[in-house]
């Protein structure tokens, strides 16, 4: 099994920035394959080894940020990025059933591997992985 190339860091917790401010998708709505709103991009996880975004954190539910649930979606699921929204190729229901992240877990690689498997994508640390066209960072 290949190793994760670098630690995944919250973009919110780093000094890293996107190449262009217009490319920062945090705060944009996330729309599912049917065009229905799932939630919004609350954060991005960046591979500190390659400085590439690997996952987006999608916050959904709750009221005014209270009671929101957060799930990770591989950026490989992004099909389009508009000025106000990020479109993905999965349904709202699929995203809602994604593996829950527990920050207290010891081995994150297992979680990330399960997450990529759940969404049906090869993990970014695997052989032959090609970085998707979106987003540009």
UniProtKB/TrEMBL annotation:
Ranges of residues in domain PRC-barrel: 20-94
> Signal peptide location in the record?
none
What InterPro entries does the database record attribute to this sequence? Bac_photo_RC_H_C, PRC-brl_dom, PRC_barrel-like_sf
Annotated PANTHER family: BLR1072 PROTEIN
What is the protein name stated in its UniProt record?
PRC-barrel domain-containing protein
């Amino acid at each position: 099994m290949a190793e994760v190339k670098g630690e995944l860091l919250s973009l919110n917790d780093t000094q890293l920035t996107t190449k262009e401010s217009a490319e920062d998708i945090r705060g944009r709505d996330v729309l599912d394959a049917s065009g229905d709103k799932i939630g919004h991009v609350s954060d991005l996880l960046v591979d500190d080894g390659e400085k590439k975004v690997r996952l987006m954190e999608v916050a959904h539910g709750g009221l005014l940020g209270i009671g929101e649930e957060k799930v990770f979606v591989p950026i490989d699921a992004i099909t389009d990025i508009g000025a106000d929204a990020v479109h993905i190729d999965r349904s709202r229901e699929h995203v809602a059933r994604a593996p829950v992240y527990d920050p207290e877990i010891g081995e994150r690689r297992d979680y990330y591997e399960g997450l990529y498997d759940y969404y049906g994508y090869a993990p970014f640390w695997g052989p032959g992985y090609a970085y998707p066209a979106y987003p540009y960072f």
